[in-house]
Amino acid sequence: MSGTLAPDLIHRFTQLVGEKNAIQAEADLAPHLAENRGLYKGRSSLLLKPGSVDEVSAIMKLATETRTPIVPQTGNTGLVGGQTPRETGGDVIVSLERMNKIRDIDPVANVLIADGGAILADVQKAAEAQQRLFPLSLGSEGSCRIGGNLATNAGGTAVLAYGNMRQLCLGLEVVLPTGEIWNGLRRLKKDNTGYDLRDLFIGAEGTLGIITGAVLRLFPQPLGHQVAFAGLASVEDALALFELAARLCGTCLTGFELMPRFGVEITARNIEGVRDPLAGQHQWYTLIDISTSDSADSAERMMTSLLEQGFEAGLIEDAAIAASVQQQKALWHMRESMSDAQKPEGGSIKHDVSVPISKIPAFMHRADAAVLAAIPDARICAFGHMGDGNIHYNISQPIGADKAAFIGRWREINTIVHAIVLEYGGSISAEHGIGQLKRDELASIRSPIEIDLMRRIKTSFDPANIMNPGKVLAIS
Ligand code: FAD
């Protein structure tokens, strides 16, 4: 169904969750109709907040019966418009914000069971209270929720050591478009019993079902933790320093982030409380994060040795080690605020790409040349999870340029950058997903057989195409 929702249909949905959990007032709906970057603004006259898996199931049964499109939304921090309703006005938003409990935690088995609407930061805290670590960490962790993290297969800052959300999940509970409930809340590391349904829902961006619960993996809390910030002359030196760090630290290397001078400058200028940690200026910076499980001393020794060898090899121009937990947080805050720091600089055109790590310098040089050929005074702010080969290749508008005209070139610049990414065997969406933003591009970068298999999976789970239609795949 498209177009606005009929009053009797709104009434039937409302009865399933109760008046106060069926949001219709324009002012209350407004924050759910737009996303963080202001790229998409949809329409909807109904947002449902179910309080239980059975209520989600009842919603989906009615949606199937009436062919009503459903858009799952949890934290609304997604960056590709997957959680934003379409402009038709006929989509019903289902938010799991009331289903936000930690159901169980087993520190011996190192697992935690959470509702799909549990806030990521709450999951981290619950693990910490049991001297355990849930390693997924994102700039949006105070508001994004586990269902959204799973649906986008979120990455973040510790993928290097612990993997992305797919690697951090053992089991799922999902409500299917028909309203059937699949209880796959298994706590097993080893389970080779047929097709892996869990992996289909992870990263599906709400197009196959609604994730209402998950079994998440925990890890021992590290005893040693060190964070350093190093200034470097080139991206080639950053790559060589990464190689050195990977060799010296092995699995203790938890994060290796890359930042350009321009990124550090605007973050210090535009984000309150952030200052440039080093006295001089450097072309590039890396944030190095090391965690050890045996002792605090071993992390310190490892970091000191890495920096000494980095200096001796001529890779590091200057460096500072955070002297307290507060300073460690301040360094990470700087890195995580880099995207927000671009906002006061005007429009920015963004890319979330990955290439094989060894190709990062070559990719950067070619992309810079191509972008500057198209927009000569563009200010490139390419930063990201270098250790994962994932670069947020962002471009701020030239000073004084017209913001709307600059943003109007989004697709053109994406096409230029993505072509180079693909030449290096990379991905046009490393961690944010496809959503609406890259939907049409997906069809051109995946082979016909892959697209066909994806469509067949989609239609077998959701023959009526009511699960987040118009996202990831174009199916009419
Ligand atoms: P939403 O935005 O609500 O939804 C995202 C997608 O998941 C949509 O397609 C939606 O339909 C679907 N969905 C939501 N809930 C469910 C559910 N229960 N069942 C099925 N489908 C569902 N991402 C990274 O990977 N790494 C980062 O480092 C990172 N940093 C970020 C920093 C900032 C400041 C911001 C704003 C975003 C960042 N993101 C990052 C993107 C975003 O936070 C992640 O995509 C996050 O995982 C989305 O979670 P959410 O709860 O906000 O989901």
Description:
By secondary structure, the chain is an alpha+beta fold. It folds into four domains: 89 residues, 2-Layer Sandwich (Uridine Diphospho-n-acetylenolpyruvylglucosamine Reductase, domain 2), CATH 3.30.43; 119 residues, Uridine Diphospho-n-acetylenolpyruvylglucosamine Reductase, domain 3 (2-Layer Sandwich); 113 residues, Alpha-Beta Plaits (2-Layer Sandwich); 107 residues, Alpha-Beta Plaits (2-Layer Sandwich), CATH 3.30.70.2740. Helix content is 36%, strand content 20%. It has a five-stranded antiparallel β-sheet with strand order 5-6-10-8-9.
Helices and strands, with pairings:
Blueprint lengths: L6 H11 L4 E2 L2 H8 L13 E2 L4 H14 L3 E4 L18 E4 L6 E5 L4 E5 L4 H9 L3 E2 L12 H6 L7 H4 L6 E7 L5 E4 L12 H5 L8 E8 L1 E2 L3 E9 L2 H15 L3 E8 H10 L13 E9 L3 H17 L5 E4 L3 H12 L1 H4 L6 E2 L2 E3 L5 H15 L4 E7 L4 E7 L6 H5 L2 H14 L15 H7 L2 H14 L15
Parallel strand pairs: 2-4, 3-4
Antiparallel strand pairs: 1-2, 5-6, 6-10, 7-11, 8-9, 8-10, 12-14, 12-15, 13-14, 16-19, 17-19, 18-19
Helix pairs in contact: 1-3, 8-10, 13-15
The structure holds flavin-adenine dinucleotide.
